[in-house]
Amino acid sequence: FNPPAAMCGKTCIMEVEEIVPVGSLDPDAIHLPGVYVHRLVQGTHEKRIEQRTVREA
Q1: Could you report the per-residue pLDDT of 1-57, keeping only the tens digit for each?
Q2: Among candidate residues 49, 36, 28, 47, the one with its CA nearest the CA of residue 1
Q3: I want to staple 13 with a disulfide (CB 3.0 to 4.6 A). Which of 5, 24, 39, 49 is the partner?
Q4: Which InterPro entries is this protein grouped with (predicted)?
């Protein structure tokens, strides 16, 4: 997600895995500044994004 897309909408909803205290994240790791976020939802789903790939020897 990026700021231009967030600016186009009237409401921006951000889904997160974990809500952390202010200042605990590296500012360079933030992709969308909080000024564009209107709602915050903490997801309760299981993260199934990781896919293990190995090469045969």
Answers
A1: 578 888 888 899 988 888 999 889 898 888 888 888 899 999 887 777 677 778 876
A2: 36
A3: 39
A4: CoA_trans_fam_I, NagB/RpiA_transferase-like
The C-alpha atoms of residue 44 and residue 35 are separated, in whole angstroms, by: 24
3-state SS, residue 4: helix
Contact 11, 38 (CB under 8 A): yes
| Cα–Cα distance for residue pair 45/32, rounded to 1 Å | 22
Residue 26 tokens read as 């590296």
In order of 21, 27, 56, the CA distances from 3 in angstroms are 22, 15, 42
Q: What are phi and psi of 35, to 5 degrees?
A: -60, -25
Q: Which residue in this structure is represented by tokens 């896919």?
A: 51
